[in-house]
Amino acid sequence: SKTEPTTHTGRGTGTDVVTVRVPAKVNVQLAVGAARPDGFHDLANVFLAVGLYDEVTVTPADELRITCEGPDADQVPLDATNLAARAALELARRYGVEPGVHLHIAKDIPVAGGMAGGSADGAGALLACDALWGTNASREELLDICAELGSDVPFSLVGGAALGVGRGEQLRTLEVGGTFHWVFAIAERGLSTPAVFREFDRMNEGVRIPEPVASQELLDALAKGDAGALARAVSNDLQPAALSLFPALADTLAAGRNAGALAALVSGSGPTTAFLAADAESARAVADTLRASGTCRTVRVTDGPAPGATVV
Ligand code: ATP
């Protein structure tokens, strides 16, 4: 095939379809600081990408259009509020490209589940449109657009494991010395991330909240690939707020713990619950027990770290 020079005219690079695969995340540590004057919270956020993926496929179209398939597709907004649309529009704006593109999302990441599904689609659409339009944005510029779209979007692009500070968007890549086996229990309904932060603020009114810092034990456990040590170090400051808004999650956590999970925690703002298992076999056993417990909608078994957004 011929290689055309890079253009910023929106004529593209001769490619007419690009698919990007993007992983979900679990927060193995989510330390939340006091609310800032702008309403955001400072975070120390240790992200681990796991092997549940959305795929974003882009093709040229007369105007921006979004479609979505998957079990939760009916809960995904198909207008300009969709993070995939916002990503495409921002890239087009910066490069003066016509944003005529059909974005198709094959959604496997639970919606409003605390696994950064919307963020994954934003990062995926960005990388896909960059390839489709031949805009050739630098890694730095892509990360800058991601940070503008949302706190979790830069990590969706990068994948692996990373420490996020600030709102979570300033990333430091972390070494991971092995594979961690996870089970995710997906709840009957979603939880709104802003609502969980509001509940966190309500529950902590009048409380002096320390500066959020990453746990050295946790970073060491990741670096060693030591699941037992990681299980002892995981923490999520949003868990009490998520449980307060969704008390039945306590039953799911208990079911997974009783089934032999090394650790059980709410993933991010929830309501997905995450169970760290000693190995793949133990993960399958935890999953079987969770399925039989009737305390969740679906159970998924996977591992991490997973690679970030990748053109497939
Ligand atoms: P996080 O873990 O980053 O807090 P989440 O996984 O809990 O996010 P998302 O699935 O990202 O939640 O979606 C939260 C809300 O964002 C949805 O209820 C939906 O209204 C909106 N949204 C915007 N774009 C998307 C998208 N591409 N996919 C899913 N939801 C989207």
From TrEMBL:
Pathway: Isoprenoid biosynthesis; isopentenyl diphosphate biosynthesis via DXP pathway; isopentenyl diphosphate from 1-deoxy-D-xylulose 5-phosphate: step 3/6
UniProt organism field: Streptomyces mirabilis
Alphabetized UniProt keyword annotations: ATP-binding, Isoprene biosynthesis, Kinase, Nucleotide-binding, Transferase
GO molecular function, one term: 4-(cytidine 5'-diphospho)-2-C-methyl-D-erythritol kinase activity
Role this protein plays: Catalyzes the phosphorylation of the position 2 hydroxy group of 4-diphosphocytidyl-2C-methyl-D-erythritol.
Protein name (database record): 4-diphosphocytidyl-2-C-methyl-D-erythritol kinase
Catalytic function, reaction form: 4-CDP-2-C-methyl-D-erythritol + ATP = 4-CDP-2-C-methyl-D-erythritol 2-phosphate + ADP + H(+)
Domain of life: Bacteria
Annotated positions binding ATP: P110, V111, A112, G113, G114, M115, A116, G117, G118, S119, A120
Broad class of enzyme this protein falls into: transferase
InterPro entries: GHMP_kinase_C_dom, GHMP_kinase_C_sf, GHMP_kinase_N_dom, IspE, Ribosomal_Su5_D2-typ_SF, Ribsml_uS5_D2-typ_fold_subgr
Domain GHMP kinase N-terminal residue range list: 82-160
Active site per the UniProt annotation: K25, D152
Record-annotated GHMP kinase C-terminal domain positions: 219-294
